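Consortium newsletter contribution from the modelling node. Members have asked for a concrete example of what our holo predictions look like. Here is one, prepared for the 6-O-phosphono-beta-D-fructofuranose complex that several groups have been discussing at recent meetings.
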Amino acid sequence: MKKIGILTGGADCPGLNSVIRAVVRKGMQEGYVVTGIKNGWTGLIDNDMRILDLKAISGILDRGGTILGTSRMNPLKDPQTVKVMKENYKRSGIDALIAVGGEDTLTVAFKMHQEGLKIVGVPKSIDNVLSGTDYTFGFDTAVNIAAECIDRLHTTAESHHRIMVVEVMGRYTGWVAVEAGIAGGADFVLIPEMPINIQEVCDALRNRHKRGKTFSIIVVAEGAQLNGRCSSTWNEDENNIDDFGHRRYGGIGELLAKTIEKDTGYETRVSVLGHIQRGGSPSAFDRVLGTRFGVKAVDLVKEGKFGKMVSLHSNKIRYVDIEEAVSKRKTVDLALYDIAKVFFAE
Ligand code: F6P
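And here is the predicted structure:
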């Protein structure tokens, strides 16, 4: 019987279990046995795998996280590790590998495909940062969570006549900030793609308050830049860099709140949503998208289309080269940002 391996790598996000469930169900129907590789690429290095049967995937559709575990381990740093992965892939009898992940995991997938492994990619990320697909799964849930938080912050901001700064995830792109900002009626949305003009923000807030509004909501992506710097540069500590060279972000909200309070005199508070955006149950949209991606990934394995990533285009499930998806980050559509701007500080 032919064997499909599946792993989930990089940051977790809601919808991973929907993909795993779909791959196992569709895979079994197509006559494959599916083996789950634990903790991303680490499991392929350590030979940590187990067969996923119907019992293993029962009741996981609505569960956040990943039943396989994940890691941010970069196996490309050491050629010896790449060799071990190739050997273990062969030894375990895997005929094809489905790698579910974001830009880092899929960069490794592309490299391992070049090394001869038969790989199909599935795009995940709350940041929606991958090219070649309209959406990654996980993003919709994150936007919904952030929008609900903004709604809640609205009522307390209004009662206390305060400015609320809401820091959301998005270290290189502001997708979550823009969509959650539009959905939550934010008065400003600040994103990595657009350097912040703090004077413009403060002047607009003053005008808004002069017109009678006594509260405002500002959504800021963690990677937004103030005075030419983003929060990842504030901590030069080497331990702050992960295996793929990404620095940890966080702190732009706090800095922004302090600066605004000082400049305008309006009482300002900050809420950092952080990993709350990645935890918990996936939205219906992400369950459906993850399921569609999982089923399509098995189709691609069956058709022998390797080095490809399943993708969403105008609500149709298609596929692109993994290389295309990882070669360039998908930054915020500026036409969408212009829509958010219509509602800035009036
Ligand atoms: O890559 C997704 C992401 O959620 C980023 O937006 C964020 O900066 C990062 O992961 C946080 O990662 P970690 O889980 O390692 O703290």
